[in-house]
Structure formats: structure tokens, C-alpha cells
Design a protein that fits this description.
Elements: H1 5-18, H2 20-41, H3 55-95, H4 102-133, H5 136-144, H6 148-154, H7 160-170, H8 175-191, H9 194-205, H10 211-247
Helix pairs in contact: 1-10, 2-3, 2-10, 3-4, 3-6, 3-10, 4-5, 4-6, 4-7, 5-8, 6-7, 8-10, 9-10
């Protein structure tokens, strides 16, 4: 079953138009604000030694980077959990007819969150390895497992591992297309905030970081990242609705 891409984008845009206020509220609270907190509170990562660096310099750079990761792991983890919860709450609100309002959707999303986090962790290792080694295998894995959230919501009760396998089954025959959609989302999530992040880094390195200017620049970067994330969530829901309806779910 080949997916209808124009239909996917039309459905995603229609969902946004109908529920714009709710979607922007949830995305603002659980995606934008955590991202902004990371930009404001986490220091810039130490630079990696250039190509002409000696082995001791490379080792020293790796040590500094590892220390930076360890020091900020709790912040990254908290932001990731908040983002996962926001994505799940939006998906429940749009997919679960039993949740009449946002409060009910957020309550149900909280119950589903442990399984959603477990599923995300289960695909994190293979996807990360794929991205690190050749990039494309990691993107392909992420594309085939993009329907975990909707599956957990609609096809209940279902375990995290079963949701992963169900996503793989639903996306069979569309792996490359969905990998392409995933790749576009990943690239957009890096490119759109990049100019504002570069301004932030430049100001900090030059020790000309006016707090108001930094807040404005980082808010713009966080807004770009949140917009891409929200678009990705809506596309995933649209993909699920199309493929699930064709499979008879």
C-alpha cells in the first residue's frame, strides 16, 4: 500500500487548522519551553579539535566533551521526556475519541508515557548506531517506527515492543518514503534554528551576551524547533490514519 503524500500533508494541515489553539498551547508548554530552557541554561559544547590536532589534543577534547555531556545529562533527559509527553498528549487529543477535551487527553497521555518512553529507548540504540555509522540506516529505522505513538493510543492495550512491531508492519512497502519524510524533519529541525543558534554562540564567545538579546535569539531558535516538531507529530498522525484505515484497523 503506497501512501498518498498529498493526502498526508492535507490531513496534517487540516488538523492544525481545526485545533490550532490547543496544539500551539501544548507544543508551547512541552516542546518550546523545554527547548528554550536547554538553549538558555546549557553551556555551549566545547569545540572539537581541528583536523591537525595531535592525539593528546584529541583525547583532551574528547574528555571535555564527555564531561559536558555528563554534566548536562539531566537537563537533556528532562527536556526529552517533556517533549515525548507533549507529542503523546497531542496525539491522544487528535486520535482518541474517548478524550473529550485536552484535560482528558493529557491524563491519558500520562498513563501511556512509560510505555512510550520504553519504546523510544528500545529504538534509540539501533537508530543512533545507524545514524552514526551511515546515517541512512538510522533514518530508515526511525521512518519504520514513526507510528509507535499512534499505535499505543489507538490499538490498546498494546505493549511497547508490540507497538514497535505494529509500526513496522503498517509501514511495510513505504519504508523509503517514510525515511525521506523523517530525513526532511531531521534536516529542518537542524537548519531552521541554526542561524539563531549561531548568533547566540557568537555573542557568548565574544562576551557580548546581552541577556535580553540572548533570550530573544534563543526564543526564535526554540520556536523554529518546536514548529518542526509539531509538524512532524501531525504528519505521523496523518500517516497512521491513512495506513491504518487501509489495513482495516
Amino acid at each position: 500500500m503506497t501512501i498518498n503524500l498529498p493526502g498526508i500533508f492535507t490531513d496534517a494541515w487540516s488538523m492544525f487548522r481545526r485545533h490550532q489553539e490547543v496544539l500551539m498551547t501544548v507544543a508551547g508548554m512541552f516542546i518550546f519551553l523545554p527547548t528554550l530552557a536547554l538553549l538558555l541554561l546549557v553551556p555551549v559544547a566545547p569545540p572539537w579539535p581541528d583536523s591537525g590536532a595531535t592525539e593528546p589534543e584529541i583525547q583532551a577534547g574528547a574528555t571535555k566533551l564527555a564531561a559536558w555531556i555528563v554534566d548536562n545529562t539531566s537537563m537533556f533527559a528532562a527536556a526529552a521526556v517533556a517533549s515525548l509527553y507533549g507529542a503523546l498528549a497531542i496525539s491522544v487529543f487528535l486520535l482518541d475519541p474517548g478524550c473529550a477535551d485536552l484535560r482528558a487527553a493529557m491524563a491519558r497521555a500520562l498513563k501511556l508515557l512509560p510505555r512510550y518512553i520504553l519504546a523510544a529507548l528500545l529504538i534509540l540504540v539501533p537508530a543512533s548506531l545507524g545514524l552514526f555509522v551511515l546515517i541512512l540506516p538510522g533514518i530508515y529505522i526511525l521512518g519504520r517506527t514513526m507510528l509507535i505513538g499512534p499505535t499505543l493510543i489507538v490499538e490498546r492495550p498494546i505493549a511497547a515492543t508490540a507497538a514497535i512491531m505494529r509500526s513496522i508492519a503498517l509501514t511495510r512497502g513505504n519504508g523509503l518514503v517514510l525515511a525521506g519524510l523523517t530525513g526532511i524533519g531531521l534536516v529542518a529541525g537542524q537548519i531552521l534554528p541554526a542561524p539563531f543558534q549561531r548568533i547566540d554562540e557568537t555573542l557568548r564567545i565574544a562576551e557580548a551576551a546581552n541577556p535580553v538579546m540572548i533570550a530573544i535569539v534563543d526564543s526564535a531558535a526554540a520556536a523554529c524547533a518546536a514548529a518542526v516538531t509539531l509538524a512532524t507529530i501531525l504528519v505521523r498522525i496523518a500517516v497512521y490514519r491513512q495506513l491504518a484505515s487501509r489495513s482495516g484497523t
